[in-house]
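hiii, so i know i said id send this last week but things got crazy w the move. better late than never?? heres the sequnce for the chain we talked about at the cafe, plus the structure i predicted for it. fair warning i was half asleep when i ran it
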Amino acid sequence: MVIKFKNVTKTFGDVIALRDVSFEVAKGEFVFITGPSGSGKTTVLRLILGEILPDSGKITYQGTEVAKLSEKELPFYRRKIGCVFQDYKVLPEKTVGENIEIALAAIDFPVDKWAKKVDEVLKAAGINSRTNFFPSQLAGGELQRVSFARALAVNPELILADEPTGNLDWKTAKEMMELFEKIVKEGKTVIMATHNQEIIDKMKKRIIGLKEGRLEK
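okay and structure toks below
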């Protein structure tokens, strides 16, 4: 198993975000985490990243307990994970290519190989013609492709996607899903939080449903 949650509970003050949640995700799976706003979808992704820790229960990544990683170990752990966000999280003052280079710098990727890697991941995302554009010059679908390319740049074993089609029209969302499908076929694992029922129905992937922090039966 790539990811395993065992009896995980997480609270924020008086709010119980997750209640005794258990599930597993295998290598090469494409899994949807679904549920209405406030059901705990984003909390699951943040727990996997080690941004927050569970109050009880255990989360393991390929057998390693995330909560037991030291501050020195966490950055190396996160290098194995690529993230795609609904709001893109690109730096507006940097070009598309420079945004990818920042991700490469964070993993100490050899500088002399940056140009080749940037071109490679932007081609994979279908946006290599926009290398020297700034984010303000791009449409929402193009910005999401930049976010996708940046996630690929670190050559992750696992990609976490948080509502990646939330700001996209159906045609563009469908194109993004095809990109995710492609990388799953290459052996990567994708865990995607979404409440887009049309995407869920058409993709026909395994669903981990949440409601008020609990797994739906």
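btw The chain has a mean pLDDT of 94. thought thatd interest u
miss u guys!!
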